[in-house]
């Protein structure tokens, strides 16, 4: 067992985020397992993973010394600018990156390559962050995309900016995110809303529509119909895990290429014909309302990320097929 006293710079983090921060190399499944086993206490009491820690709280994590040493070991960071060509927007407070498909936003096991690590290495290389000087804060993402979803991810470079981004993504009132999704079948309505609660099985990472789940709402707008498919602009009004994928499958229009919730025959066709190995889902646009400092520079701005090459090629091919018919 190890105990930690919460510092002022950590005030307001959820117990879940704090645990991932402490056990930075632990697999996601391991962290959720110790929550289920109630092997984490705050001030001597069990707390929900969404509990907001406060300065002076004592957090106790009940794992072996061997596990602890493995999970806190610093991973060597090599300054590099690999993400330079992925950057859509950058200022002194935030960084917006066009994440490629296949890359995790945050690692789920110690040996994973992840976008957050690449961003930190970029900030080190450009003299914007020094981990040896900055102990209380690490630049990080304000939200996540699935490994196989490409597109815009917003990072905060300092504590205040990241906290404000967290609130924006939590409340959804001064921010809008748009996704491109190619789905199976011809969607009849030009516009629609899917309001269905979602429940997550943490251990198996499966999400289902369930009356006992958390409220979830997705809206969509038809962009174009193809012979057997439809291209949609999708917006989230809540931010649940796998929300778009599960909701579209729920209305019988699963995302092409989705190997967990999708239509496996359509996936086979697209893999064979176009080489598509992942879901056709891209976070392509993000817009903001009037924001206070430190994010005032983003006020009334909209940022767009070019679709990745494989889905752009598929859209071109589908357009050509439509014209031939």
Question: Can you put this structure into words, describing what you see?
Answer:
The protein is of the alpha+beta class and 325 residues long. The protein contains eight helices and 16 strands. The strands form three sheets. Strands 5, 6, 7, 8, 9, 10, 13, 14, 15 and 16 form a ten-stranded mixed β-sheet that branches. A four-stranded antiparallel β-sheet has the order 1-4-2-3, with no helix packed on it. The longest helix is centred in the last third of the chain and has 16 residues, at 309-324.
Mean pLDDT score: 90
Rg, Å, rounded: 21 Å
Overall spatial form: globular
The computed structural class is alpha+beta
Beta-strand percentage? 25-35%
Q: If helices are DSSP runs of H or I spanning 4 or more residues, what is the number of helices?
A: 8
The SSE string, one letter per element, is EHHEEEHEEHEEHEEEEEEHHEEH
How far apart are the first and last residues' alpha carbons, in Å?
67 Å
Helix percentage range: 25-40%
Q: Give the number of DSSP strands.
A: 16
Low-confidence stretches: none
Q: Tell me about the biggest sheet?
A: 10 strands, mixed
Give a brief outline of the structure.
This protein is α+β, with helices and mostly antiparallel strands. Helices cover about 25% and strands about 25% of the residues. About 30% of the residues are buried.
Layout: helices, strands, pairs:
Blueprint: E1 2-5, H1 15-22, H2 28-36, E2 40-42, E3 45-46, E4 58-61, H3 65-72, E5 87-90, E6 94-99, H4 115-125, E7 140-141, E8 150-156, H5 159-171, E9 175-184, E10 191-195, E11 198-201, E12 206-209, E13 217-225, E14 229-236, H6 243-250, H7 264-274, E15 281-288, E16 302-304, H8 309-324
Parallel strand pairs: 8-15
Antiparallel strand pairs: 1-4, 2-3, 2-4, 5-6, 6-8, 7-8, 9-14, 9-15, 10-13, 11-12, 13-14, 15-16
């Amino acid at each position: 067992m190890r105990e930690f006293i919460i510092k002022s710079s950590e005030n307001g983090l959820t117990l879940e985020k704090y645990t991932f921060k402490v056990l930075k190399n632990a697999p996601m499944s391991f962290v959720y397992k110790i929550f289920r086993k109630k092997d984490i206490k705050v001030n001597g009491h069990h707390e929900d993973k969404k509990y907001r820690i406060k300065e002076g709280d004592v957090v106790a994590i009940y794992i072996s010394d061997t596990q602890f040493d493995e999970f806190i070991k610093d991973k060597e960071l090599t300054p590099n600018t690999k993400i330079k060509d992925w950057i859509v927007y950058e200022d002194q407070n935030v960084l917006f990156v066009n994440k490629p498909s296949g890359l995790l936003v945050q690692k789920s096991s110690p040996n994973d390559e992840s976008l957050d690590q690449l961003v930190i290495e970029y900030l080190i290389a450009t003299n914007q962050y020094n981990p040896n000087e900055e102990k209380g804060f690490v630049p990080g993402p304000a939200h996540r995309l699935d490994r196989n979803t490409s597109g815009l991810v917003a990072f905060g470079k300092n504590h205040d900016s990241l906290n404000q981004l967290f609130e924006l993504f939590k409340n959804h009132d001064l921010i809008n995110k748009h996704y491109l999704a190619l789905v199976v079948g011809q969607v009849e309505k030009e516009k629609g809303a899917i309001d269905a609660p979602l429940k997550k099985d943490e251990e198996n990472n499966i999400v289902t529509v369930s009356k006992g789940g958390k409220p979830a709402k997705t809206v969509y707008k038809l962009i174009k119909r193809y012979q057997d498919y439809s291209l949609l602009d999708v917006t989230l009004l809540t931010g649940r895990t796998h929300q778009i994928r599960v909701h579209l499958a729920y209305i019988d229009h699963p995302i092409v290429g989705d190997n967990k919730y999708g239509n496996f025959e359509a996936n086979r066709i697209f893999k064979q014909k176009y080489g598509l190995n992942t879901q056709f889902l891209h976070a392509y646009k993000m817009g903001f309302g009037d924001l206070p400092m430190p994010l005032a520079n983003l006020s009334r701005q909209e940022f767009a990320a070019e679709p990745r090459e494989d889905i752009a090629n598929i859209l071109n091919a589908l357009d050509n097929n439509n014209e031939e018919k």
